Amino acid sequence: MSARHRRRLVALAIAVGIATASCGGAHSIVNPKGSEADRVAGVWWLMFGLAAAVYVVVAGCILYAATRGRRRRGPSRLHDNWFIWIGGVIVPFLILVVLAVVTVDATSALRTSSPGEVRIDVVGKLWWWEVRYPGHGVVTANEIHIPRGTPINVHLTSDNVIHSFWVPQLAGKMDTIPGQPNNLEFTADKVGRYAGRCAEFCGLQHAHMGFEVIVETPADYGRWLARRERVPLEPASEEAASGQLVFQREACAGCHTIGGTDAQGTVGPDLTDVGSRRLLGAGAIENTPQNMRAWIRDAGAIKPGVQMPSFQSLPDRDVAALAAYLESLK
Ligand code: CUA
Predict the structure, then answer these.
(1) Residue 240 has what pLDDT?
(2) Residues lining ligand 1, judged by CB closer than 6 Å?
(3) Structure pTM?
């Protein structure tokens, strides 16, 4: 093999590698881990297969025409154009009919309404997600725990603009519309953390309106729910206890709720279990003590446009205590 051929082969391998690497990621629809995503992926592969077949046939015809040249003959008659009739009219028509039938069938199958075994209410906020478990009094934000193998019904609304709830590996997109509740039903097959995104442009921080769906075994999910239903314990450390005082003294309690305390604000996310969350600011940053301090100090520097005010004048000691308190809420 010549050096030129080797270079071409390497370039082809890199291109295929890049193209397929993007197929397995957290936001991939062709790596389904749930009932609804399975169905969507099936339609996608059918479309991909048909498109690939059309590409191969058309590219083959171009190659054939380019290499074999043109036969000379007299003026063409209607029946001489059979190739155009078949390739340009009949085959595309049949492909579109097949795709239409399959798509309509999949769409109607995904929209059959069932109450699900677990109902979760999700509200699209600016720019985060409120998550409620009706009947359990559990409220959290940006992290949705669900049991594996159990039909889930996510009830979706918004109290501001239109957002779209999308966990590519579990289900298709569904808008959250003010005044128009929507339902999304799916069953997750595999334990794991699945990234979700807002899929409808909704303003300045649309790109930082992420969330995670945490699929657990039914036993783990039951334990999680039972833990969340209990009133949180009083702060264990002295620093966390002084952080609780800062939380109540400053504006925090006006916007945030912490279960079992006087803080009952509803503007910002419920913080009752904020210490257990993997990310802060709806996926903007990792939840570490250092990031928590930076977020309290000036959330707008991390997520411009965020409704959380900055606390630049708060002494370092108070910020550290606040962060210690919030990280202790698990
Ligand atoms: Cu919410 Cu985009």
Answers:
(1) 87
(2) 124, 127, 163, 198, 200-202, 206, 209
(3) 0.80
